[in-house]
Design a protein that fits this description.
Blueprint: E1 5-8, E2 13-16, E3 27-31, E4 34-38, E5 46-52, E6 57-63, E7 68-74, E8 76-82, E9 88-94, E10 98-101, E11 107-110, E12 115-121, H1 129-132, E13 134-136, H2 147-150, H3 161-164
Antiparallel strand pairs: 1-2, 3-4, 5-12, 6-11, 6-13, 7-10, 7-12, 8-9, 8-11
Amino acid sequence: MPPGRIFCPLFGVSVPDEHPETIPPQNIYSDERGRIVSLPPFPATGVLVIESEPGAVRGNHLHQHESHLMYVVSGRMIYLEETERGTVVATEVGAGETVISPRGRAHCTVFPERTVICVLNDVDRTGARYEEEVVRVAPLDQRVDLSHLIGADLPLVRPAVAAHGKA
């Protein structure tokens, strides 16, 4: 394995340890009717569509047994991930881009504008299993300065986990 990369066995590829890469669609088919976007291959057992308002913070957790692919349908998100060395790195992911969150890696997303993402899970997390799969971590978004990416005046909205259990 090249230095600075970790192997993601589910996808059979290595991903960077220090700075998550955005992944373009596998293909885009366009004509006068519109577009069909072919996402990168991913062994999905579940799909979520998540709509987020400006300032929303989601995640601040890791998944014990799951990896997931996040595709930005519209808007943009800041994907934060903790490296094996404990540093937090931020990657801006725009409309039409994808990022993969590897199993066991703490992560969170911050939405500077209204954004719709599609999340493909490789483990079924429906119903009560939603929270059983995650381990909460100290807020990654509070460990890095995001003002250059989201603006200094945007109030962040964090989940009230006790109220609804989902982030």
